[in-house]
Amino acid sequence: MTRSLSDDRPDDPADRTGSDAVADAEPAAVTGGPSADDRGRIKVGVGELAVTSEDATLTTSGLGSCVAVALVDDRAGVRGLLHAMLPAGEGRTTAASRPAKYVDTGVDTLIAAIDDAGGDPRRLEARVAGGAEMLDLTDAVGPRNVERVGEVLDAAGVPIVASDVGDTVGRTVRFGPDGRLVVRAADGFERAI
Amino acid sequence: MRVDVRALGACNRLAEQGAKQAAGALSDLTGTDLAVEVTGASVASGQDLAESFAGRESIGVSVGLRGGLDGEAVLAFDAVNADALLSLLPGGQSMERSAVTEVGNIALGGFLDGWANYLGKAIDMSPPRYFEADGAAVLPDGALAGDGVFLFESRLDATTTDLDFSIYMLPDSGPFRDLIVGKTAPAAAAGDAPGAAANDGTTSTAVPYESLSTFSSLAKEGSANAADNIAMMTGLETSVDVSRLRFVPLADVPAEVGTEPHAGTVFELQGQPSGYLAILFEESSAAAVADAMLPMEPDEPLGDMAENALCELGNVMTSGFIDGWANVLGTTITHSPPEFVHDIGASTISPLVAKLSERQDYGFVIDTAIRTEGIQARCDVYALPDERELARALDRLSEP
To answer: Which CATH class is domain A39-192?
Structure first.
């Protein structure tokens, strides 16, 4: 058997259509797209993002100092979730970096992907979770992430309608078709924002 | 041979992409959901590999490779998961060999597509060979020979069933080595090619292969020291289950730690190399180990008394761990006081990964599992050194 030379790289986000259940929405040089399962759950890993225009629930787990940004255009039924690790990628992104690793490039990429999937960037609402100050050892990377999310969304004209950020606790989130972000803390306490 | 760290990153990415394709092919075939949890290149001597695979039984498929790559690729399931796998396959138990062979063939085909594409050369696969293997016999031919090898390993995880499996590929042949040492010009114009990486204004780091292999062995000694220190402080017998030096995408490390609650300690390392070290126990293990250290049963399983005990334990383990590095590298490495952590494992380690990620996308991770006898307890030690500082220290090591 001979392996062919077919192009197996992820599609360019611009080629995606709104009917895609999963859009990992990252440029061709980026790997690490999320995976979907048949019950409509799309796992978003660290430094990844995903967009859906269907009923799938977007999830990301183990948020510590990382921050999750959930965007929804209710009217178009398009949602997207980003799990970013660091505040700013400007001038620091290399060919090997995932744009979703950083809040600034990640939010921009997420908004573009939602646009491509049929959402309207002008109608977006944001929900934010994570950005905890897990350790004294690491200098406030969580709060810096949260601050950057505020700046980037403000610049993009996207209002933050709810957030569950900061503190010293790890979180796991689910972003379902109703547009609410369910945040579960390490102690099991769960709330929808 | 000098290993180009960026080229190694690009190879790791190919292995990761390939593993995703393999997972997709398997998901389609079995109707279950598979996700690639982690892909890494481990560095280990043949002897270390043989030890780390001792007692494991595997079933799987191997194919020979010719053309763009020479060598062997292996897809292996833990034998204990074989029934779970077979129940998902068309034909099921009655078709054991042919079903597994077919799965392996499809998955490995998917895995190799990305490499062929990248190399701009077709890769010929020999017909798949089914095997059942004890211990390290599962690894590609040649893995156990020589002083050390890179072994690319992807672990895939079924989200709804217990069906982890691994893909191993061994770069012991010429073309594969050329990829890792950065000699192979990028065939694809993609930005993640090793040659293209230098355009972003940073310089690539090359590490002498022999030094990596030496360091891998020493990391293992550090793990043994850490385990001995647990034994000394708790009176429990300990053993090191796994100790490996791997090169992985840093963003994958939190997923590897997992979403279970963990307790333990983290440290900042200063010196050459600097970095972080995390010692994490699952909650029940943390409570059991703390209990063994304390003169009386604590009021709460993971309260202040347990916290103090675990911090004290973390201190001596970390000293044991890094003393070995410092000795061989001829450098001084010190560590911060312990910081107690008790939270979702992935959340705990995420700020450490984030800090290192400011400078690097991939990193060398030393992960070690230490098990205690008598009481059921296990801890995982993750050492995350700064890549450039480690490379520099290893470079000095190889100087005459």
So the answer is: alpha beta
